[in-house]
Every structure is written in structure tokens, then in C-alpha cells.
Amino acid sequence: MSCLLSRVAVCGGTHGNELSGVYLVRELQKTEKPLEEEDELVSVLVVLSNPRAVQQCRRYTETDLNRCFTHATLNGPESDKTPYEITRSRELNSLLGPKGSPEAVDLICDLHNTTANMGLCLIAYSDHDWICLHIFRYLQANIPVRYIHFDFPPKEAYSLESVGKHGFAIEIGPQPHGVVRSNIYTTMKAGVQHVMDWVRFFNSGTIFEGGSVEVYTMVKNIDYPRDSETHSITAAIHPQLQDQDFCLLHPNDPLFQTFSGETLRYKGKEPLYPFFINECAYYEKGIALSLARRKCVKMPPIQVKTELEHQENEWEFASEEDE
Amino acid sequence: MSSHNTVSFSEARRVAVFGGTHGNEMSGVTLVNLWVKNGAEIQRKGVETKPFITNPKAVEKCSRYVDTDLNRAFTPENLSAPGGDDLPYEVQRAQEINRLFGPKGSPEAYDVIFDLHNTTSNMGCTLILESSKDHFNLQMMNYIKKAIAPASCPVLLNEHPLLKYSTSRSVAKHPVGLEVGPQPQGVLRSNIFEAMRVILKHALDFIELFNEGMEFPPCTVDVFRVSERVDYPRDANGNIIAMVHPNLQDCDWEPLNPGDPMFQTFDGKTIHYEGAGTVYPTFINEAAYYEKQQAFVTTRRETLVASAIRKA
């Protein structure tokens, strides 16, 4: 059972060239309190995460902001050599966190685009954060969407949404970086609206029934074949794999096509689900595609716990212990 | 058909293939790097075909340019500007390229330069022509179109006095732009890569046939002539306030009629095209053109007549 979600943050421009989030945040910032209604239980912060990168229409200026939210980076030393994005991550941590403390916002929704043909995805570190999973299920009833789980322990979580008590990234593709496609923008806007609708329903006491959902848990990444000297790639994603995100990849299926036309095949033993196929920003991270296992996750029903109920529970526990 | 005389050109002996004029347009970068290592695929009898990375610093950064757009830099002012190392990187590069492959406008200039580009727009394999009177290029484009039929290969003619720009390839006597999309910047898609490779193969085949003495009879070439640049609607601060409408997105080369949806504001309102007549938009939603104030460019259809050509 969770307490009221009283503070929610919607962040865009964490990568400055992922424009759906940049433009959505700009639009939301134009109207004061655009996602809040009168006498609201929830207050919404709308944040442009990396203004410098947005201004230059680049993913980042010195280092990837969305890798700067580990406890180690957030609490490290500060000097005049500190990269802009690390300084910024610490500012965001003050604004939305501190990460791990009771003052952190209840929910962070971080908006991203990908050049991969992934459609709409929620990406989170947990497969048992019931807030995130119920939001996912609610979204699913309204739009096609998938849930991707990165199984990292909280200590290793490096991205912005890990600053909140609950959080996920909304990732939509395919969209080239530096471009805003109207259909993609519209989907993201609808997605954020549905998230806020769920938060309102939840805060007002709605019971969300238990059920089960499918979750894709990231297993591993595969890099491009590279030249041993220059490290340049020597093959491209195979035409039969290009754009086939979430289509099961079987052992021996084509993976890459070399520039001389040869097919390189998937040598793994286990069929897995590919995603982030040919994401532009991942060339430099050594990732041609990621692979996931799909599983069913059962979720309990969920309902907001009021402060009163919370206190009553505590008294109950105390008296039980006395007995 | 025309009764013009056959136009003769000297053999096209010196040909260059430029990649990386924009450092994040990956098909050209990849192809040229491949051919620098092993150029057998692009060699033709009697032709020296030189693959060349025009903007190596931008390629290394995987960005469009370092200081300024190389593909706008070949103006007479830039090419003759003094200042050496103090000049913007791309202006220095333009001068170097003009030395190696030009001088622009002189008899010593390269015969043909192919400049390989990608676009985020859904333009397919587009050939870019700079002059409606270049019969050699017109015949080449006719040859390519026939070779890849039934697949299509639109020809974009940019001869507009204001919108024409000074390209890297303009150093040559016969400049040919190859623009293939859609492909995101920084991404290499194998289908786009192969398509570009095939177009270039046919272009080089044409040159070989021409040099061997084949005469190409008069022909007509349907082109799209650049007409007008259309910017995004913006607010008083210059911020974009609408996106390319979903009905127009990806519809490069399709007719846009007065009254058709053109833009969609961020709160969902439609802005309609209010031109005088039907136009054929292209470069729809090209990433690099947001900063150049261009959402798309309109074109008008035209049929050009190419004289017969043969080698001198």
C-alpha cells in the first residue's frame, strides 16, 4: 500500500535532441500548472533537464546526463573541472530528491525518444514497484505500450527517474534525433496525460485490481562487429532485423550484414526479444541492440493509504507486538 | 522530340565521390571509407575515381559540421578569403577541396563529383541537379532512372537564384548530389546504404559507357524544380509552435493542394497550405533544416529536354 502521490515531476530534454519531451515540457511550462486542477492533491513539476544540450540540440554537452544519477556521482566532489552534466545532475537531485530521502518527489516521469522502432515503452528499474506496474496496466488499456525492466540494484541505478520514490522513463520511437514527428509527439502527450489521470484516480482512493502483465527484462547487449584497429563498425544491422524490435530473435537468425554482403547470425542459445535496435546514441556505447526475456508478473491490488490509515496501522502493529 | 544537334563533351576522366560532407550522414561516410581502403568497386576503365572524405573533423565528431555547414561554404568569397588558420574550419576545407578538385569554374576542375548525403526526410533515392542546361548530367540521370525502374529516383533541380547554395560538389564541371532517406543522423541503415551504392554503380556505368563512345539520344527528364522554402510557424521569440502535420509527414514528392493540412500546433490545431496552386513538397522535416528555418521546400514539376550527347 502506498501513500498519496502528492508530488510528480515530468522531465523532458534529459537528452537535448530528443525533441518530443523538449517540446512537451515547453508546452506544459507555457500554462501555469497545466496538469493540475483546482484543489488538487498532486502538484506537478515540469522540468527541462538539460537546458544547455537542448539549446545546442545535442544529446549532451560533456557527458550523458542520464548516466549521472548514481549515489556516487551525485555525492562526489565538486570542482571547476566538474562537467556541466554532473553539476546539473546534482541540481536536479536537490530539486527532485535527494535520491533515497523522504523529501524526494513521489514519481518521476522522464521523457525520451529513440531512433529504434520500439513504439511506446515504459522503462523502469523494478518489476515489483506496483505503482509503476499499475500505471503501465492503465496505460495499456488506452494505448499500445510495453514495459521494459532493467534489473539493476538500486545502488547502481544511474538515470534520472531513480531520483524519485517511484519513476520510469517514457521512451517512444522511431524518431530521428533533432526531429519532432507529430504522431510521436501526440502519443507522448497522451501517455503523460494518462499517467496523470491514473495518479488522480489513485490519490482519490480508487482501488486498482490485481492482475498480471507482461514485462521485458533486459538480459544483455550485443555490439556491432568492429575493426580491431580503428574500432569502426564493419557491418550494419541486417535488413531482416532492422525495425523488428520485440520480434523474437531465434538462434541463427540474421543479426548483421557486413559491407561486403555477408550475413552474421545470432549465436546465442536462447531465443530473446530484441529492442533498441539501431539506436543512434548507442553506437558510442557499444550497443547495436539489447535483448530481453519476457515474463508474466502478477500484481496485487493497490489503493492509496491515507495518513490516518497509515497511523492506525502503526498502532495496530505496536499493540500486536505487545501481545 | 528535339532537333538539337548532339552536344559533345570531353571524356569524363576525373571523377570524385565525396562522403562526410555532413559528418553524421552515415551512408556516404561508410561507403567512402570502404572505398578508400579498397576502391575496386568504383573503378571503371579509363576513369580515375577518387573517394574522398570532405569533412573529416565533422565525421570524427559525428556531427553535421564543426564551425559552419561545409555544403554552403563554396561561395566565391570563401574560396578566395585570406586568413589561413584563422578561418572557420569548413572554409579552410572548402579552399583545400577547391585546390584538389577544382578550381571551381576552371578547365582543370574535376569532370564529375558525386556528393553522398542522407536525409531524415522520406525522399527515397533523390538525385540533385544544379543546372537545367547540364545535358551530360541530365543524360546520366535519365540512364539511372531507367536502370532502377520500376523503382523511382526523383530528380530535384535546385537552380533557384535565391535558394541555390554553394555545394562541395559545385567545384566540378558536372556536380551530382545523391540524397537518400529516410535515415536518422548518426545511424546506418543497411537498406539505405545499399540503395545509395546501387545508384552510384549505375552512375559510374553511365560514365564508362559514355567514355567508350556510346551516343545517348535526346531524351526528356521529369524533374522537380525548387520553388519556395516554407518555415515552421514560430512565436515572437522564434520558437517553433507547430509540427509538420501527420498528413504531410513522409509525403515527399506527393501533391500538396491549397487547403491541405500542412502543420499541427502542439495543442492539436491544423494549419492549412494556402498557396496559389498544387506544389510537390520535399525535404519534409529534415533535422538539419530546423536551424535553417525550413520545414519543407516546395517544388513544381517540369520536363526538361536533354540533347543527344557523345564524347568529343
Automatic annotation (TrEMBL), chain A:
It comes from the Eukaryota. Its main location: membrane. InterPro entries: AspA/AstE_fam (IPR050178), Aspartoacylase (IPR016708), AstE_AspA_cat (IPR055438), Aste_AspA_hybrid_dom (IPR007036). Residues 212-293 form the AstE/AspA barrel-sandwich hybrid domain. GO terms for molecular function: aminoacylase activity; hydrolase activity, acting on ester bonds; metal ion binding. The keyword Cell inner membrane does not apply. Gene3D superfamilies: 2.20.25.160, Zn peptidases. Transmembrane segments: none annotated. Zn(2+) binds at H15, E18, H112. Keywords: Cell membrane, Cytoplasm, Hydrolase, Membrane, Metal-binding, Zinc. Its cofactor is Zn(2+). The keyword Membrane applies. It catalyses: an N-acyl-aromatic L-alpha-amino acid + H2O = an aromatic L-alpha-amino acid + a carboxylate; an N-acetyl-L-cysteine-S-conjugate + H2O = an S-substituted L-cysteine + acetate. This is N-acyl-aromatic-L-amino acid amidohydrolase.
From TrEMBL, chain B:
The keyword Zinc applies. Zn(2+) binds at H22, E25, H117. Pfam families: AstE_AspA_cat, AstE_AspA_hybrid. The active site is at E179 (proton donor/acceptor). Substrate binds at N71, R72, Y165, S166, T167, S168, R169. One of its GO terms (molecular function) is hydrolase activity, acting on ester bonds. Binds 1 zinc ion per subunit. SUPFAM superfamilies: Zn-dependent exopeptidases. Transmembrane segments: none annotated. Keywords: Cytoplasm, Hydrolase, Metal-binding, Nucleus, Zinc. Its EC number is 3.5.1.15. Its cofactor is Zn(2+). Residues 220-300 form the AstE/AspA barrel-sandwich hybrid domain. Residues 12-207 form the Succinylglutamate desuccinylase/Aspartoacylase catalytic domain. It is found in: Cytoplasm; Nucleus. GO terms for cellular component: cytosol; nucleus. N-acetyl-L-aspartate binds at R64, E179, Y289. InterPro entries: AspA/AstE_fam (IPR050178), Aspartoacylase (IPR016708), AstE_AspA_cat (IPR055438), Aste_AspA_hybrid_dom (IPR007036). Belongs to the AspA/AstE family. Aspartoacylase subfamily. HAMAP family: Aspartoacylase (MF_00704). PANTHER family: ASPARTOACYLASE. This is Aspartoacylase. The lineage of its organism: Eukaryota, Metazoa, Chordata, Craniata, Vertebrata.
